[in-house]
């Protein structure tokens, strides 16, 4: 039938920049594979399911958009092949196409015409339909980009000044200027020096002479000779930025040294190819000790998440969080019967977290799929898994690291996600689930001269503990299996096991610090000790096992022993001010340690090689919460004459509690906001610049009078957590990592679950969910531990 709404709607095909959600619903994981299919709005291209949940109808009521394209996909019958199909390569994504496997059916319906099907040739409907069907879907776009790093030029490649040219040795005869290596050679584009690179995955040799050349000359840009192709593709590395970069003038810069790219032949793998190969190799065993395949699990709470390329850090973190009561209740159990009325669900954090919760916990999508055959047995198919593409894009938006397709640190992602959830609005009756992680850490400082004391408190949602490295001198021992630090190396250091209690003992032990006492004038220093003033319901512990190699944190395989029984934290409870103790004056001048740096952010900055005093200053001036903002502050203040002096605080308090710093105010006002807006927003957001900007946009009706008198006294907030004893915790889940660096390798989650045959550990390895049984070895090398209060 003809429809008058086609002309009225003024439909246009989707632009290249628009997201077309034509694979799954933006509010749940129902997809075009459902019997009813998926309705795609032809005005804004939102995807809505039309089954029992009918999110498509909800979107129509909110938006008023009448026309939808129904897309339904069915599997084609399998055709028997005389020859086996070609093996699909991650590097060559174009293999079997969607059209080879599925039949796709489309129809146009109009809600304005009582939901009737209409003639698809009316007006410009054909062009719009073709545009929707040919547009790259949101999820597919993510998958394709997942194996391509986002590499851009930098100031050093754009402003490169080359020295006088000279003739280089031919490609076959070239070798490192400092050793005899003839592979993994890097050409300094500034002076023409040839230096070998760092040792690479797969046994590629390297003595880091290229890096040594940079340390000596400060020539930043080098190109890997063996990676140059006739098309002009090659690996370019900037040592100053410590990252891969691109060079728009690479052809001219190479020609300066007598290299004609048209005559070059690629002889070595690129860095991207090696990273992909390495990440694919980090597989966690899916078989038991007797060689039998681990049993796949299905149903509520046993749903896997697809790896979007390098997104295993996200999948493992989400699995651990949504196995906890606070996240289950907040985003699933208390809201599953209600519908969120949001015009743009794909851009709404509340909607996407509920979507993830429903996907993981409902069991609706946890079913065996014959297309996902096991590599060990065709009789044990796994599930298809859900693609968390919308949530990944949303929480990574405008973030320097999480917006890319590179592997990231799962612990940093956890803190980033906590920050987003804390800043989001929580409807009445629904609590912030991160509150279960919060507790108060108390710091006690005692002057070594007069023995007067000072106490400071800091609210935290995690702790990051150091793991002592005690090497066992057995260089010829060959290790395999769990905890392998770097593929291609058979000989490596081994370490004595360390208990989690020893790590906590070190975390709460006395530490000597520089201190000038204004009470007695002593410069002997002070003893500083941290303890728990309250305990959380869930304690997240990040175990730091790193060593800095060429300014890159490399993981050490130190076993951490965690007992199966309850972990008692009673002895770590801080006693507070004791009888007979005398407090130091509130104003301790320049040496007053009123500021307590965020433990997790501090440890991450120190792991990057920044000195302690610089880290403290950066965190103090950026709100004491965000590692990225602190790092940017450091890069902007490297030339400050007092950058290495101890932190000076003019009065008691620290960081956000002392009010926003001028640097923070300048950042916000530099975006076009007034000083009053900046001050108030920064105070409301504890100095977090990113959150402050969002807060301003959400409170535009505020008069932003920072100095207005308080009409009533603010309500005193109680400390998060509990002081109740005994404080016993049981390990609930772990995030494990394989690989030499936290920014490469592979992450999985092990979660303690109640199964039909009793309690057992369950392995969540991307879309694969299997009963693991014994996780003792994995517990020793976990990266993040989640302890639940017993």
UniProtKB/TrEMBL annotation:
Q: Active-site positions, per UniProt? A: 312, 746
Q: Which PANTHER family match?
A: UBIQUITIN CARBOXYL-TERMINAL HYDROLASE (PTHR24006)
Q: Where is the USP domain?
A: 303-790
The family database entries (InterPro entries) matched by this protein are listed as: Papain-like_cys_pep_sf, Peptidase_C19, Peptidase_C19_UCH, UBA, UBA-like_sf, Ubiquitinyl_hydrolase, UBP13_Znf-UBP_var, USP
In its UniProt entry, the species of origin is given as Sphaerosporella brunnea
Q: State the Gene Ontology BP annotations.
A: protein deubiquitination; proteolysis
Which positions in this protein are listed as binding Zn(2+)? 176, 179, 196, 209
Taxonomy, top ranks, is: Eukaryota, Fungi, Dikarya, Ascomycota, Pezizomycotina
Q: Zinc-finger: present as a keyword of the record?
A: yes
Per the database record, which ranges form the UBA domain? Answer: 596-637, 659-699
Output this protein's name.
Answer: Ubiquitin carboxyl-terminal hydrolase
- Keywords associated with the record: Hydrolase, Metal-binding, Protease, Repeat, Thiol protease, Ubl conjugation pathway, Zinc, Zinc-finger
Entry-linked CDD domains: Peptidase_C19B, UBA1_spUBP14_like, UBA2_UBP5
Q: What is its EC number?
A: 3.4.19.12
This enzyme catalyses: Thiol-dependent hydrolysis of ester, thioester, amide, peptide and isopeptide bonds formed by the C-terminal Gly of ubiquitin (a 76-residue protein attached to proteins as an intracellular targeting signal)
Which GO molecular function annotation, any one, does this entry have? zinc ion binding
